[in-house]
Amino acid sequence: xxxxxxxxxxxAANRPLRVGMIGAxxxxxxxxxxxxxxxxxxxxxIADLSPDRARSSLARTGWPADRYGATSFSAAxxxxxxxxxxxxxxxxxxxEIDIVIEATGDPAAGIRYALGAFAHRKHVVMVNVEADAVxxxxxxxxxxxxxxxxxxxxxxxxxxxxxxxxxxxxxxFEVVAAGKGTKYLPVYHTSTPDTVxxxxxxxxxxxxxxxxxxxxxxxxxxxxxxxxxxxxxxxATGLTPDPDGLRFPPCGVDDLPRLLCPREDGGQLHHAGQxxxxxxxxxxxxxxxxxxxxxxxxxxxxxxxxxxxYVRRCFREYGFSTDPSGRYSALYKPYHAIGLELGISVASxxxxxxxxxxxxxxxxxxxxxxxxxxxxxxxxxxxxxxxxYGKLLPAELSVRMGGLPLGLAHGIKLKREVAAHVQLRWDDxxxxxxxxxxxxxxxxxSTFGSGW
Length: 452
Description:
The chain is an alpha/beta fold. Helices cover 37% and strands 18% of the residues.
């Protein structure tokens, strides 16, 4: 609760947190809109493959042009301005930067840039949850070895869920389930960039008038983004997925304690201590009453049988929403502000050397799963595309089956025909074993999965 006070102190001492950002897309732009109002923060540099896009992001979010005209990182530090470059490696090496925000969205790039930051003993705020889903546990370990902090991005749902889980455990409650809401129907798993807009209710005119990325929007719809984010939560909290993956039960906020508890207690969970995503739609397409489409939740119960009756009575006395037994309750947050909240991670990492969520174990993995029958020789097109979606599995199960991580299922060819809705394996594809992202992922599999 002291981050703002600490930022003011850094500003007064003229020692701002020196931040560099890689990728100036939507998430980055949202952060830039807030960073210019935050004391004790200096955006020293921005790296983007299109420097003009970075300048447009700054202009769109209200930055005066004279604040981003620096000609070098050192000039930016001297003048309190921002240097824009297309050279991400130069940003990673710059001594004028201490914290790197990785916001490219590309898993391989995220791994590469995080390792580059650690080599220069810089902290990393990983907006790129796709990279975290592929190799978060090993990235977290490499950061610790370098004396750096590796953190999930506050404002994105995984970090907000981690915060709620931490609140529960620090308060002495047992976490029963944690997750987020989304719009889901089973048919969405087969959605492609060609079919996505009617599911969102967007007309051709709306799409033509806006700046919409069909593949990105489709990754949210077809279940992939939910799987990626819940893998990050599982690995950061030690919670585990259902062995059959996400179930997406329809559930409103008033029913969280009743439905998000174990089946033996009348709920829909495979086990206590599970990650799960709830749907804002009933299976027949009707909207769920008081849905949590944009928010996050946690369900919990008293930490031990001893004293449970007393805790149950306290729940009742203070108006907690519970299941019929009174044992289970829930906490939820109806919205998340995405990049607008990212400053919490930057301040936490820079002032406290503390992550806002980071992998502590390998519990969940996202395996590429065929959207339709695929034929030998087809090229997979990754997240949100035409060929595969991501399915969340327990990491142990993924390793045992040789599962192909969704984040690396892009631009590689199938060796053989695959039926629809089948989890792909490394053995099903032709891949470059020398690719740095593949090498790093294989290192994680051998490091964390050797005993499975």
